[in-house]
Amino acid sequence: MSRYLDEEAATTESSAIAINPAAEVVLQWDDLNYHVKEQQIMRGISGEVRAGELIAIIGSSGAGKTTLLNALSGRIVGGELSGNILFRGAKRNPGNFKRSTAYVQQDDLMHPLLTVEETLTYASRLRLPSSQYSAADKNGRVAAVIRQLRLEAARNTRIGDAATRGVSGGERKRVSIGIELLTDPKLLFLDEPTSGLDSNSSEMVVELIKKISVEQNTATIMTIHQPNARIFNMFDKVILLSQGQLVYFGPASASIDYFASIGHQCPMHENPADYFVDLMTLDYRSEEALAQSKAQVNTLVECFAQYTTRTKPDLNEKHTPAGSYSGSGMAVYQESRAPRNNWFYEYSTMARRDWINALRNVPFIVGQVSQAIFMALLIGFMFFHLKHDALSVSNRLGVLFIICVNATFPIIMPVLNMYYRERDIMIRERSSATFRVSSFFLSKLTTFIPIALTANTVFFTGVYFISHLTFDAGKFFIGLATFFCLTAISVSFALMVGSGIKSIEFGFVVAPIILTIQILFGGLFANPHTITPVLRWIRWVNPVQYGFSSFVQNEFKPLVFSCEEGVQCYSTGMQVIQAYGAGRFTIWQDILLMLMLVFVNVVAGYALLRWTAKPKYIWL
Ligand SMILES: Nc1ncnc2c1ncn2[C@@H]1O[C@H](COP(=O)(O)OP(=O)(O)OP(=O)(O)O)[C@@H](O)[C@H]1O
Domain ABC transporter, which positions (predicted)? Predict the structure, then answer.
């Protein structure tokens, strides 16, 4: 089969790269077109990549590099994609394709508080099936990747982020690549692996990618904006794109001769990539310049189209895939499915990682504990040493209500914030089919709830004793149980909002609105029985009301108050309970209903996360 410029290049003396025509064709694509609404973003792109080859997609900004990479890696969302893509000679099956390939995203989304070694170790535990790799094998794989990517010196450095200094940009990129290499993929995609790196780090990263492609016989496709000459020479082949169209696809070493043959001789000392990108870029400085550059791009595209009509690859031609495929080239590729780890192993690995992350998150822990202590002192002294006179009724109600409110905002907002950050990492990890959504969700729940409970026990105990609510062990523990339920509802509510609403900005608008409604209808400001029937249903789903009702009954039931003569006041706690509509359910029923709300939030959060985290990719 002919392959664009391979044959000529392999025989030209100027070709520095030995292209192996016998290497397995790992991915072939033919006549790829992509539109979004009326806009045609990619037009008639064809090509292929072989085992051990490194191909770079080069073009100016907006040329369609990422779109092509996403189409090839099965990550196109929205729009209309047409054409043919074959993986190892057969049509792709999304599950198997994801497991045999790896994709290094442009943004290195990783847990900032883990060290390089920990990051790779947890990734190896989650990605490599325990049925095939023992713990020692997994550690061996991590050690090999650390060596291969020259990360020895940084192995104990934390990844870091904008807030905390960690590894350098180049090391960070190498860790991202390392995570993907753990599974020894047949096909590796990298989106702008050099973006944001200085020239030395960029060269080192591309050199490593090249070495890995050769040593592991991996077919590698990467996008790159404008490589320097040394990087350009490391590519086996390049795909030059302009306006979503192919200007050149063939060996990097043959590109200069090709452009010279169509009248564009690259000057001696100019970087070929810069020269080609300049030729392919539209010039918006004036109308005339734009028309000229458009005409030039059209000519380049036409020249290449004419050149390749003679050598167009035939996608129905069979290759020899390592996996089995049946029938014609259009069969679905069926490489044996990689087994998953069992659920409990996945969950315990993630829970351990989450605990490390949470405990190292000093601002989160300090914030939770210090707000608990501060609020305990503030509220405790605001309602210091409650008496049993008429005035103490409203104070008692006030302190109980504030305890409920303190179990909402101060817990939900930080948990939501942390969850959003982790959810993005999870979506990146899930795009390589690393683990189940259920183990991720439960691991988050079982990390956040104990942390929130510990900090808030300090708050509840402080307020309870400083404000002198009824000193009775039974009452204290019932109050604590009520507070625990409210805390668990808040954590599960934060996870539900974070799972259901993809946009952080929108999530941070919706959550406070719902909380404000819960507080307004919580039972202190309006008697639940007198609320208009149109809004009365809110009480069924309002944890603040169940919590307040439970606290009020627990505190007020046996109390009597001394009323001054001639002044109307509540003389017994039962009168207060009735006046505030707090006795609709018993304390235990309130607690049970709160536990049911936790359950509903957890189930809804899990279902929403499954739905929102499910990639909606278009497949060919
Ligand atoms: N889903 C989409 N909806 C609308 N326009 C899109 C969509 N996807 C891509 N485009 C447009 O298609 C063009 C190519 O985008 P793409 O991201 O592939 O370019 P690129 O070459 O990777 O650019 P850069 O180097 O700046 O990342 C751009 O003009 C972009 O705005």
Answer: 27-268
Mean pLDDT lowest among 30-44, 208-222, 292-306, 559-573: 559-573
Distance of alpha carbon 104 from the chain centroid: 13
Any bridge partners for residue 224, and if so which?
Answer: 58
Residue 118: closest CA among 98, 138, 148, 101 = 138
Instruction: Assess whether 41 and 71 both reside in one domain.
Output: yes
Q: How many CB atoms lie within 10 A of CB 98?
A: 23
Q: Read off the pTM.
A: 0.82
Q: What percentage of the chain exceeds 90 in pLDDT?
A: 51
What is the tens place of the pLDDT at every residue in 162-191?
Answer: 778 899 988 998 999 999 889 888 899 999
Query: 172 and 68, same structural domain?
Result: no
Distance between Cα 274 and ligand 1 center (Å):
20
Query: Which of 304-313, 374-383, 511-520 has the least mean pLDDT?
Result: 304-313
The residue nearest atom 31 of ligand 1, judged by CA position, is 62
What is the number of the ligand 1 atom nearest to the C-alpha of 223?
Answer: 22
Name the residue of 37, 41, 75, 77 to mutate for ligand 1: max ligand atoms within 8 A of Cβ. Answer: 41
Last-in-domain residue among 150, 184, 218 = 184
This complex has an ipTM of 0.96
206 and 69 co-located in one domain? yes
Which position has the token pair 């092509």? Answer: 68
- If pLDDT is split at 50, 70 and 90, which confidence band does 22 have? low
**What atom in ligand 1 is closest to the CA of residue 41?**
12
Residue owning the nearest CA to atom 4 of ligand 1 = 36
Identify the CATH number of the domain in which residue 325 sits.
3.40.50.300
Identity of residue 8:
E
Per-residue confidence band for 15, with pLDDT thresholds at 50, 70 and 90: very low
Residue 164 structural domain: 107-184
Residues 477 and 600 in one domain: yes
Decide if 433 contacts 418 (C-beta within 8 A).
no
Residues 496 and 608 in one domain: yes
Q: Last residue of a domain, which of 338, 355, 376?
A: 338
Give the pLDDT confidence score for residue 141 in this predicted structure.
92
Of 65, 226, 240, which is best to mutate to test ligand 1, by the most ligand atoms within 8 angstroms of its C-beta? 65
**290 part of a folded domain:** no
Per-residue model confidence as pLDDT tens digits over 220-266:
999 998 899 999 999 999 999 999 999 999 999 899 999 998 888 98
Q: Do 119 and 155 lie in a common domain?
A: yes
Q: Which residues line ligand 1 at a C-beta cut-off of 6 Å?
A: 36, 41, 59, 61-67, 78-79, 225
449 and 575 assigned to the same domain: yes
**Does 205 share its domain with 83?**
yes
Reduced to 3 states (helix: H, G, I; strand: E, B; else coil), residue 4 is: coil
Asked if residue 264 is part of any domain, the answer here is yes
The length of the chain in residues reads 620
Query: 169 C-alpha vs ligand 1 centroid, how far in Å?
Result: 24
Looking from the CA of residue 69, the nearest atom of ligand 1 is 18
Please check the confidence at residue 318 and state whether its pLDDT lies above 60. no
Tokens of residue 225, six digits: 């904006």
Backbone angles phi, psi at 424, to 5 degrees: -65, -40
Which amino acid would we find at residue 76?
I
Q: How many domains does the chain have?
A: 3
Atom in ligand 1 nearest the alpha carbon of residue 64: 18
Which protein residue has the closest C-alpha to ligand 1 atom 30? 62
Note whether residue 303 is domain-resident.
Answer: no
* 66 CA distance to ligand 1 middle (Å): 7
